[in-house]
Amino acid sequence: MSEMLTTLEETALSDYKYGWVTNLEADEAPPGLNEDIIRFISAKKKEPEWMLEWRLKAYRHWLKMSVPRWPNVTYPDVDFQAIKYYSAPKQAKTLNSLDEVDPELRATFEKLGISLDEQKRLSNVAVDAVIDSVSIATTFKEQLGEMGIIFCSMSEAIQEHPELIKKWLGSVVPVTDNFYSALNSAVFSDGSFCYIPKGVKCPMELSTYFRINAAGTGQFERTLIVAEEGSYVSYLEGCTAPQRDENQLHAAVVEIVALDNAEVKYSTVQNWYPGDKEGKGGIYNFVTKRGICAGVNSKISWTQVETGSAVTWKYPSVILKGDNSQGEFYSVAVTNNHQQADTGTKMMHIGKNTRSRIVSKGISAGFSQNSYRGLVQVGKNAVNARNFSQCDSLLLGDKCGAHTFPYIEVKNSTAKVEHEATTSKIGEDQIFYCNQRGLDTETAVALIINGFAKEVMNQLPMEFAVEAQKLLAISLEGSVG
Amino acid sequence: MGNFQIFKFSNYMLSIKNLQARIEEKEILKGINLDIKPGEVHAIMGPNGSGKSTLASVLAGRSDYEVTGGEVEFNGKDLLEMSPEDRSREGLFLAFQYPVEIPGVSTTNFIKTAVNEIRKYRGEEPMDAVEFLKRMKEKMKLVEIDQSLLSRSLNEGFSGGEKKRNEIFQMAMLEPSMSILDETDSGLDIDALRIVAEGVNKLRNGKRSFLVITHYQRLLEYIVPDYVHVLYKGRIVKSGGKELALELEEKGYDFIKEELGESVEA
């Protein structure tokens, strides 16, 4: 058995494929955080006064808050004064077209497998590319614009669509919500804004690709998606970062609003640098993602494949306010080496006949710790609320851990809440069986974990599913891919 | 003769010489000798605990067992030097006594992966979808297996008979040169047994070899072996033609013990 474990551990030792750095000249803020830095960021972005005030209010509140200690993760305290809160790749002037994007930057995205060239794109995906603190390019803008769909960087949205931003920014995740969301509100640099007008079904996947490049910087992006009555959008988010010895902070906020009969599907493949085999370096991923089904019959679905980051702290949630609204959370979280993940969801049932579904698949390898933390809350007026939760854990080796923390709070007796959980190990017998059919151990492990995660992978849009499958294999194996 | 080394290529598919193996500290195989030519069907019979399944596992390369002596040549290559997956890729197939379940992986997908891994090893392109489906259909008929079973997760919730049939189906798909059937008959009713046996018989083509491990003579009524060997306490103590199986059935294993001069327990 011990020999078997060693093989598994060896195959579990993976190399990060996105660990290179692009040499870009950057326009940066000095390290540290104070009101002047916030004014600097706001001025850099030529923001209106109300935005600056919003940021300062968040900052002043943040000063009174303390770092959350309840997640099942341990890491040295982040020195918030050592971080650079703004870094932008230097571009000579504002771009009139995508052709003017710095070739070095363009190459960076080509290397990541993301083409910014609309002509060359095969798949039907519009991309907003964000490096460090700023959005570099957004594709397919004109075509989307014809349908009234707004898909642009947050900076641009603040300039061009201030009424929408004033109305919805912070409406789902209030400035004061938590330590990291307050910090994000104070210093957020960029991100994507997406607005689907009434009755419009967005004809293509909208995608934001985040990349941290500069050393010593934090990334604080802000994403806001508003789906008006009867609209539909599927949104994808991908992230990578270079391999660095120091830890870098990523504290994003994502807000989704779905009005009557609207549907938003949000998929993430998170592949931030996880640190090396000894646990040195890697991204601290402290993210607040929340959606509100504000209207009747609305639906928000979160799908996430989490393979990266040294420490993850993230609970994409849905507030089910509208009657008959639905929330879904599908998650695969892989932890390897010394990674720690505390992730899950919150489903808050407020309206009548609201339904939620949670499917969480945790895969732990190496010395990692993988926790599912979920809250299902049924309010006193949520008649006939339904929830089904399924939490499965798969262990590779015997030095890792899997934990499940389900919380259920029900205040209405008509509610029906179900929770199922399993923990299993990849068996020596399963591996040998695969070996006997000509599969080497790596291929066998990849096959078994993809089988384990299938229910979640099936939720991903086609363009993403194949990539995500490969990523799962790469995260757990030495040489596949 | 001149002073040069002669490489002797045996005409055996599988040649086992004085094979010894143990699990933890327990000696199980104590010197097995067995030669199988292409196209031959050999049966290994023996009482419980004689080492039958151990022999199958050692040949397939299960790491729980430690080979402590002897040699095994497979198609002219040193079998014991190869990893379990290379043994498979070289054409050795084991139909498991207890096939494992792999949730979320369809049988079709699993077999496709296996077929292509083996092709890759042989420097061949992956099998195209049309050809694969054609082969699937053909082999499904062979073992009377249902399409719906193949789209389900591998062996998950399969009955005992379905699992065994699935093993033979995989064997048919992979077209191995040497197949080892480890108590494939155990837990099968007579109809399932006949289907499995017929599946095997249809794969016999004068080139493929089979090693059929069984406790009972029953299976050998359907898969008629060329040779029968009796395994007892880690050694082959008696070999003969197919009639030996009948003799064992009639007299029970006690007659072997008597022949070996052991006292027969009541």
Please provide a written account of the structure:
Chain A is an alpha/beta fold and 481 residues long. Helices cover 24% and strands 34% of the residues of chain A. The radius of gyration of chain A is 22 Å and the shape is globular. By secondary structure, chain B is an alpha/beta fold. The longest helix of chain B has 15 residues, at 107-121. In chain B, strands 6-9-10-3-11-12 form a six-stranded mixed beta sheet, with helices on both faces. Chain B has a four-stranded antiparallel beta sheet with strand order 2-1-4-5. Chain B has one domain (14-259): 3-Layer(aba) Sandwich (Rossmann fold), CATH 3.40.50.300.
How would you describe this structure in keywords?
A: 481 residues, alpha/beta, ten-stranded mixed β-sheet, 12 helices, 23 strands, globular, disordered N terminus, B: alpha/beta, Rossmann fold, 9 helices, 35% helix
Could you give the topology of this structure?
The complex is a heterodimer of chains A (481) and B (266).
Chain A: H1 2-12, E1 26-28, H2 35-44, H3 49-63, E2 87-89, H4 103-111, E3 125-131, E4 134-138, H5 141-146, E5 150-153, H6 154-160, H7 162-168, H8 179-187, E6 192-196, E7 205-211, E8 222-227, E9 232-240, E10 247-250, E11 253-258, E12 263-270, E13 282-293, E14 299-306, E15 311-314, E16 317-320, E17 326-335, E18 340-349, E19 355-364, E20 369-378, E21 386-395, E22 401-410, E23 416-425, H9 428-436, H10 441-452, H11 454-457, H12 462-476
Parallel strand pairs in A: 3-7, 6-8, 7-9, 8-11, 9-12, 10-13, 11-13, 12-14, 13-15, 13-16, 14-17, 15-18, 16-18, 17-19, 18-20, 19-21, 20-22, 21-23
Antiparallel strand pairs in A: 1-2, 3-4, 5-6
Chain B: E1 14-23, E2 26-36, E3 41-45, H1 52-60, E4 65-74, E5 77-78, H2 84-89, E6 92-95, E7 102-106, H3 107-121, H4 129-142, H5 147-151, E8 153-154, H6 160-174, E9 178-182, H7 190-203, E10 209-214, E11 227-232, E12 235-240, H8 243-251, H9 254-259
Parallel strand pairs in B: 3-10, 3-11, 6-9, 9-10
Antiparallel strand pairs in B: 1-2, 1-4, 4-5, 7-8, 11-12
